[in-house]
C-alpha cells in the first residue's frame, strides 16, 4: 500500500508515523508514506494557503490553487492516476467510518488523504479529485490530520508486517460482532484482586467459553445497539439453516 498525505502540518503526521505501529509497517515494507506540505505549493513570501470565503461568512477556507498543485504532485509521487487511486477527504459530511470501511480500505493499493483545516477546503478541489469522504462521527475536530491518522492507523494494523500477531487485530472489538473480552497479565494478584481462575486453568475450551460470555455481557451492557445487531445476525443464520 502506498499513501500520500496532503497536509499543512507535516511534522504532526511524521511524528505520529514515527511513534506508532505505522513505523513497524514502514520498516517491514508493508506500506510507504509520502507527506506533502501544502505550503510548498503556495505563492508569496507568506506562503498563504487559506483565505476568506466568497459570499462572506466567518472562518477561513483552504485555497484551491496550492491544494491542486500538492495533489497533482501526490499522484506523481505515487506513480498513479485518478483511476487507480482512492482520494480521501475526512469530512463531517462523509460516510461514517466503521470496521466495515476499515476492512474495505485494506484492499486499496494507492491512497491520497487531503487534510482539511478551518472551515474546510475549496469545493472545486473536492469536485475534481475526491473519490471518498469519511467522517469519524457526528462531531467536529479542529483539523483533518487527526481524522486522517485515525483512519490510516485502523487500516494499516490489518496489513501483514504491521503487528507481530495479526490474530490480535482480528480479535479486537468490532472485528467480530461483539466487544472484546477482558484481558489480564502479570502479576496474578495485585491489591487483593486476582486474575480469574479460569484463565489459569490451562483448559482452553473453558477459557474460550468464558471469553465469549464476557464479550456478550459487555456488548449487551455497553452497546445495546451492537447486541441487537448480533442477535439479528444469529437469528438470520439459524433461519437460513432450517
Nearest-integer average pLDDT: 92
Whole-Å distance between the termini?
A: 43 Å
H/E series, N to C? EHHEEEHEHEHEHHEEHH
Oligomer description: single chain
CATH-defined superfamily of the largest domain: SPOUT methyltransferase, trefoil knot domain
What is the CATH-assigned architecture of the largest domain?
3-Layer(aba) Sandwich
Number of domains: 2
For the largest beta sheet, what order do the strands appear in spatially? 2-1-6-5-7
The share of residues in helices is: 40-55%
Q: Which topology of the largest domain does CATH recognise?
A: Alpha/beta knot
Rg estimate, integer Å: 22 Å
CATH hierarchy class name of the largest domain: Alpha Beta
Could you characterize what this model shows?
By secondary structure, the protein is an alpha/beta fold. The chain folds into two domains: 2-156, Alpha/beta knot (3-Layer(aba) Sandwich); 171-240, Trp Operon Repressor, Chain A (Orthogonal Bundle), CATH 1.10.1270.20. The protein is 41% helix and 17% strand. The chain contains nine helices and nine strands. It has helices at residues 10-18, 21-27, 64-78, 99-105, 123-129, 144-156, 166-170, 204-222, 224-240; strands at residues 2-7, 32-37, 50-51, 61-62, 86-96, 110-114, 132-135, 189-190, 193-194. The protein has a five-stranded parallel sheet with strand order 2-1-6-5-7, with helices on both faces. α4 links the parallel β5 (86-96) and β6. α3 packs parallel to α5 (123-129) and α8 (204-222) crosses α9 (224-240). The longest helix has 19 residues, at 204-222. It is elongated. The mean pLDDT is 92.
Amino acid at each position: 500500500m502506498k499513501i500520500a498525505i496532503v497536509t499543512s502540518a507535516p511534522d504532526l503526521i511524521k511524528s505520529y508515523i514515527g511513534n506508532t505501529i505505522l513505523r513497524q509497517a514502514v520498516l517491514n515494507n508493508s506500506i510507504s508514506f509520502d507527506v506533502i506540505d501544502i505550503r510548498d505549493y503556495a505563492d508569496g513570501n507568506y506562503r498563504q494557503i487559506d483565505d476568506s470565503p466568497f459570499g462572506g461568512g466567518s472562518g477561513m477556507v483552504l485555497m484551491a490553487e496550492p491544494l491542486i498543485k500538492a495533489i497533482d504532485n501526490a499522484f506523481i509521487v505515487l506513480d498513479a492516476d485518478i483511476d487507480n487511486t482512492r482520494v480521501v477527504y475526512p469530512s463531517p459530511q462523509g460516510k461514517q467510518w466503521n470496521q466495515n470501511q476499515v476492512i474495505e480500505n485494506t484492499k486499496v493499493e494507492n491512497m491520497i488523504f487531503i487534510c482539511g483545516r478551518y472551515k474546510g477546503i475549496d469545493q472545486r478541489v473536492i469536485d475534481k479529485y475526491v473519490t471518498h469522504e469519511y467522517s469519524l462521527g457526528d462531531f467536529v475536530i479542529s483539523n483533518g490530520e487527526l481524522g486522517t491518522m485515525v483512519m490510516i492507523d485502523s487500516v494499516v494494523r490489518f496489513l501483514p508486517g504491521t503487528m507481530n500477531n495479526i490474530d490480535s487485530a482480528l480479535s479486537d472489538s468490532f472485528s467480530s460482532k461483539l466487544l472484546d473480552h477482558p484481558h489480564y497479565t502479570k502479576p496474578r494478584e495485585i491489591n487483593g484482586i486476582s486474575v480469574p481462575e479460569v484463565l489459569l486453568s490451562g483448559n482452553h475450551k473453558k477459557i474460550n467459553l468464558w471469553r465469549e460470555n464476557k464479550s456478550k455481557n459487555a456488548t449487551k451492557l455497553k452497546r445495546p445497539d451492537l447486541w441487537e445487531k448480533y442477535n439479528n445476525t444469529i437469528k438470520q443464520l439459524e433461519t437460513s439453516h432450517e
